[in-house]
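Minimal example, chain plus flavin-adenine dinucleotide.
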Amino acid sequence: MPHPTIEEFGEECTAFLEANARPRASRRGFTWGEGDDSVALFEEIDPAEEQRQLAAAKEWRARRFDAGLGWISGPDAHGGRELSPAHERLYATLEARYDVPSQSFFGIGLGMVAPTIQAHGTPEVRHAYLGPMYRGDVVACQLFSEPGAGSDLAGLTTRAERDGDEWLITGQKVWTSGAQYSDIGEIICRTDPDQPKHRGLTGFVVDMCTTGVDVRPLRQMTGGATFNEVFFSEVRVPDSHRLGDVNGGWDVALTTLMNERASIGGASGGGLSAASTTRLAALLGHLGLAEDPVYRQELMRVHIAMRVANLTNQRALDKIKAGQVPGPELSTAKLALTRNLTAVAQLVSGALGARLTADTGEWGTYAWTQFLLGTPGYRIAGGSDEVLRNIVGERVLGLPKEPGDNAKAPFRDTLKN
Ligand SMILES: Cc1cc2nc3c(=O)[nH]c(=O)nc-3n(C[C@H](O)[C@H](O)[C@H](O)COP(=O)(O)OP(=O)(O)OC[C@H]3O[C@@H](n4cnc5c(N)ncnc54)[C@H](O)[C@@H]3O)c2cc1C
């Protein structure tokens, strides 16, 4: 198929969106008092409703994919269009003007697992999963963290032992977002306990429906249960589902983590979608604070920080899409996100005061409670603020390593001493 120019592509996208979705009531994206007032970050949601939303999300992705708009910059061999990042961005901008089902179910799969499969998967795994992931038929989760290994990921203990052409996985993962509806997971396991900890790891793609996989939900303080404990009891994975070399799992994990930082930061770095500046301004107006000089100043600070984060992330994402390996500087994208979320939370708490603690039914006020309770999770997920600052300090700015008795010991052991 010939490559369309940006103008031709814009017309194609608009024709698709006009035929398949309804334009948003407000093109500005937000009108005070209109529609659902949720600004939840880790929303409490009934499992049946979650299934309904997942089905709608899958249906929309399939429609996009079948129209040639599911993986705009992806390779032809896996259903992609091989167009430029600018084409991809244009579609996203145009789609944002229409009411389409939330695509958050695919964030981890497409933002982190798919790029890792593309970089490290066997041809069989790439063929089996990439197209179906972009079509929404296969949803993926990230099985990295364990009860004893979070920031110190390389200390993980879930084992994978070779058994002919297969591997047997045994152990426990935790905080696995979306495991409850995922079809596959990217898992990092210990394959050689005698190697130094970063060198004895291997990555795999595991089918979440395999016998021996047990997913148990964890309740968060927002009331939602968006993440889980996942137990593995001698789960069989074919060797063809290995990612990268045996004992080369650290490189595989880094590919995912750098994409994670870019996509967590990039997805919301500027917009924080629900918490847009337009919405914040409307909230201040509703509360009679629009002319208050302190709130006005704070609002502009938040607005500028979001714009800067947005543009920085855009540059980083373009680099990734142009085939360059994401670097440690992407840690700043996630740091910017959490800083912006915290600034929004502070602005809103000051403005709303007691309205945050009691639900009077007033539109767009108590709803912010879920946002506030969800914000701290972002300071931990995808690398905690402290760890990311260490990375930026040491690997981007070239500062000396943190002083400590034993630089090789996990941080938690240092704390005990
Ligand atoms: C909302 C949410 C979703 C998540 N989703 C997933 C998922 O889908 N898949 C997955 O695998 N994991 C997921 N996680 C787990 C997340 O990656 C870990 O929580 C994170 O890596 C931190 O690990 P930990 O919880 O074990 O804390 P620890 O590593 O034990 O850290 C405890 C505290 O010590 C600090 N600390 C640790 N090391 C250092 C150091 N070297 N220097 C300074 N301070 C340090 C940390 O900043 C933190 O404050 C999720 C977490 C959250 C909150």
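The longest strand covers residues 166-177. The mean pLDDT is 89.
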